Amino acid sequence: MPKLVLKFQNSVLKEVPVGRNEVSIGRSPENGIMIDNPAVSHFHARVFNEDGRLMLEDFGSLNGTFVNGQRVKMVALKAGDSVGIGKHTIVISESRDLDGFAMGSDKPTQAAPKLNETVMLDTKERREFLQKVAAVGESAQVAPARLKVPTLIVRRGRTDQTEYMLNDKLTVIGKSAMATVKLKGWFAPKAAAQINRREDRSYYIGGADKVPSVNGNPITQPTQLSSGDVIEVAGIQLEFVYRD
Amino acid sequence: MELDYGARSDTGCVRENNEDSYRASPEMKLFVLSDGMGGLECGEVASRVAVDTIVEHCRRADSNSALPLSGGHMNGVSETTNRLASAVRVANAAVHAVAQASAPGKAMGATVVAVRFAGERMSLAHVGDSRAYRLRGEDFEQLTCDHSFVAEQMRQGRMTVEQAGSSPLQNVLVRALGIDAAVDVDVSEELVLETDTVLLCTDGVTRELSDAQITRVLRETEEAQEAADRVVELAKQAGGGDNITVIVVRPAARPVGAFGRLGKWFRESAWQKTATWTNGNNVWSAVGVLRPSFSEG
């Protein structure tokens, strides 16, 4: 039975299996998964089974529902998909799989290491495991890589271009020679902020000489960007979007 | 950008041999460490071959730009990063060859984390669970994701941080050098600020010490070598259950003259001061205050 794993940043908040009954998601307490955040609509979306397929439907929510970074109305889900609602993520997980192994149940595993000695998963288990990880990685990458180009649009402030496609792993905002988003003006910092593309093709913004704000909130640690996020730093305002 | 660095490796308090290796090459601005596995002398050999091969490949490429890139060219990252990734792939092949020849059928391998600085850019490549961290202001950030079983489980939401922390499978890697003929290398790039500190370490450090403990040492120490020594001592005091290896790199403090002081004064808190200026009467009065210290030095 598939399971919805509600996460915020790195912590797992809740796990809800999807059986014959649908699971609704929203800010209202009547929902199977309640997310108490103003960015989430009262009845935001639902996940349900249809002919053996797991479906996700957005109820026309204001801020949208994203699967692997792409805004969706109604889609079929598969294990490993990552559903973004506001700043929360719901990961689709197949509950059987390696769970017994992972949680170290009654069955002793061959991979259990000796005291503090680093070991590899043994060959067969590793192959299977890597295939699963690869499958998850692929599904997470398909949506943005297919036709969406992550882009920064300059909403306000003095820069050398009006928009920037993020082609590189590292994007620097500042006056420095290595900066992609070049700031102008006397008091512009050399390196105001940086954006990193991680291995899973997600984008994170972090501060450098300045503390950027995302959607009006100053960030204290690198923060993942979603489509529509507004970044403010060093007197400029940028919108992060996935462009066709 | 000049660099100050410090490095130290220690067997720890429990193990009999040190399977970690590191190489620091300040003239190439290249720093590499590796945690070997395979038991007996296999782990030592694997980690030694890994770090030596990486430094050697980069050195040869520096004097011969036509040296082919192993694994092909990646877009979106610098030439330095491409070369570093290539070096890690070559190291994988080297460890694999040694493992096949000397310990067929046994899991002889090594982790690796390597950084190389070029201007304000740092290239980073890693395989396994050795880590790179950066301290920037208040934020102590892990720059690498472990290729370990528990880390993959957490990424997929199958394990919480607490479950992972107490899992008996913490030592199980899903990726390492030398296991297969080819390996996936994670690469990234980072901006380097003059106030940043970069730390590379093996899991012997992070098993024993919390982020807060490591951060405190990095904050309190002036010299990078002193920071590396103190992190190793602390990890030993905390139990030293595994080999412990640390490299600390930070941009070197530049000789400070009058211009340097003035520049530093601007850089450190320009935005706070700008705020004061715009709230106060005008910018020129603030600059006027500066002038005496400028001419004195």
Short description, anyone?
The complex is a heterodimer of chains A (about 240) and B (about 300). By secondary structure, chain A is mainly β.
Features:
heterodimer; A: 244 residues; mainly beta; six-stranded antiparallel beta sheet; 2 helices; globular; B: 297 residues; alpha+beta; five-stranded antiparallel beta sheet; 41% helix
How would you characterize the overall build of this protein?
The complex is a heterodimer of chains A (244) and B (297). With 244 residues, chain A is mostly beta strands. Chain A has two helices and 23 strands. Chain A has helices spanning 99-102, 123-147; strands at residues 2-8, 11-17, 23-26, 33-34, 45-50, 53-58, 65-67, 70-72, 74-77, 82-85, 88-94, 119-120, 149-156, 163-165, 170-174, 181-182, 193-197, 203-207, 213-214, 217-218, 223-224, 229-233, 236-243. A six-stranded antiparallel β-sheet of chain A has the order 2-1-11-10-7-8, with helices on one face. In chain A, strands 14-13-23-22-19-20 form a six-stranded antiparallel β-sheet. Chain A has a five-stranded mixed β-sheet with strand order 4-3-5-6-9, with no helix packed on it. Helices cover 41% and strands 23% of the residues of chain B. Chain B has helices spanning 42-63, 79-102, 149-155, 161-166, 203-206, 211-220, 224-237, 258-279, 283-296; strands spanning 3-10, 20-25, 30-37, 109-110, 112-118, 121-127, 131-136, 139-142, 172-173, 186-191, 197-201, 244-251. The longest helix of chain B has 24 residues, at 79-102. Chain B is globular, with a radius of gyration of 22 Å. Mean pLDDT of chain B is 86; it is low at 269-297. Chains A and B meet through strand 12, helix 2 and strand 17 of A and helix 3, strand 9, strand 10 and helix 8 of B. Strand 12 of chain A pairs parallel with strand 9 (172-173) of chain B.
